[in-house]
C-alpha cells in the first residue's frame, strides 16, 4: 500500500489540487509545510491531525517544514470564527513559538536537516506595505476572496480589513518558502482550502511554476463538532495545562460512534488491526477506547505516563482510588480550613472544579458531585482534616476526577 492509499484508507484526505501530489508524496519528493499560529503557549489535541500527518509524511521520506506563525498571528486567522482573535504582543508570540517547538519535537525529527522549523515573522514583519501591494496585490481578486469559505462566518458580523489580509499573508508564506526553501506543497485543515489555493495561484502567476496543496479532514465528532475540547476548554498537549491523566480520560471517553474513526485517523496502528477492531461491539468498544487513549497519551507524554494514566483510570472505573496519585490534585494547608474542616463548595472552588460557590452549589444540588464514589448529599457537607489527610477523590459530572489532600 502506498502512502497516499494509506492516507485515503485512514480517511485523512479531503481535497487535493492535482493528482501529481500522489506521485510526489509516494516517492518522498515533497518538501511540505503546515502552519501553526502561536495563539497560545501550547498546542492542543486539535493539532493532532497535523502533527501525525507530518510524521507519516516524514516517515515516507518527505521533508516537513513546521511554520510558526509569528507574523500571521499578529493578524489572526478568521477561518471558522464569528469574532476577531485576541491581539497578542511580539513577546507573547515569541514565547508561544518556543513552547510549540518543544512539543513538536515529540512528533517530528528535526535532526540533520530532516525537517525545518521556520517563523514567518522573519520575512512578513520586514515587508514594505506599498511594495507588497505592487508585488502581489494584483494577483488577488477581491471578488474571489469575498466568496472564500474562510471568510464566510466573519462576513455575517463584519470582516475587518486586518483579517481580510490574512489570505494574502498565508499565500505569501508559500510563495516565499517555494523560492527560498524548495517548499512545493502545503497541507492543512479543510477550512484552509481557500488560503492554500491563494498560495498555489500566487506561485503560478509570479513564477510560472506548479505548487500543490492538500487538505485533511477535520476531526469532528458524530454531531459534527470539532474534537479536542472538554467542558468548553481546549485539551492541551502541555502536561501543566492538561495532565496526562486528564488527556487520557478525554480520549477514553469519546463516543462509541467516534472511537474507531479516531483510531484510524490519529494512531499509527496497522490498518489490518484497525479493520479487525472495527467489528468490535458493546463491551469491546471500551477496550478500543482504552487503546486509543493509551496510544495518543504515549505519543504526547511517553509510555510511562500513559501507563500511569491507564492504571489510574482503571482503578477509578472499578471503584478503587489507590492509583489516584496520578490524577490532577490539589494540596490544601491548615490555613484553608475553618475550625478544622472545609465545606464542599469552598473545596471545589479551591480545586478549580467550579468558578464560584454558586456554580459549585448548583452542581451539588443537581447530583453531579461524588466524593470517593458517594454522591454528595447537600451543599452543606464538609470534610475534616482527618478525612483530607488520607486524600479524597472528587468526581464532577461523568468524566472529571480530582484528588484533594491535606
TrEMBL record:
Location relative to the cell: Cytoplasm
Residues noted as binding L-tyrosine in the record, renumbered to the chain: 33, 166, 170
Protein name: Tyrosine--tRNA ligase
Keywords: Aminoacyl-tRNA synthetase, ATP-binding, Cytoplasm, Ligase, Nucleotide-binding, Protein biosynthesis, RNA-binding
Coiled coil regions, renumbered to chain: none
Domain Tyrosine--tRNA ligase SYY-like C-terminal intervals: 333-402
Function: Catalyzes the attachment of tyrosine to tRNA(Tyr) in a two-step reaction: tyrosine is first activated by ATP to form Tyr-AMP and then transferred to the acceptor end of tRNA(Tyr).
Positions of short motif 'HIGH' region: 38-47
Complex formation: Homodimer.
Keyword Lyase: no
PROSITE patterns hit by this protein: S4 (PS50889)
NCBIfam families, alphabetized: tyrS
One Pfam assignment: SYY_C-terminal
Enzyme class per UniProt: ligase
EC numbers: 6.1.1.1
Amino acids binding ATP: 229
Motif ('KMSKS' region): 226-230
Catalysis performed (reactions): tRNA(Tyr) + L-tyrosine + ATP = L-tyrosyl-tRNA(Tyr) + AMP + diphosphate + H(+)
InterPro entries documented for this protein: aa-tRNA-synth_Ic (IPR002305), Rossmann-like_a/b/a_fold (IPR014729), S4_RNA-bd_sf (IPR036986), SYY-like_C (IPR054608), Tyr-tRNA-ligase (IPR002307), Tyr-tRNA-ligase_bac-type (IPR024088), Tyr-tRNA-ligase_bac_1 (IPR024107)
GO molecular function: tyrosine-tRNA ligase activity
Family indicated by similarity: Belongs to the class-I aminoacyl-tRNA synthetase family. TyrS type 1 subfamily.
Chief location of this protein within or outside the cell: cytoplasm
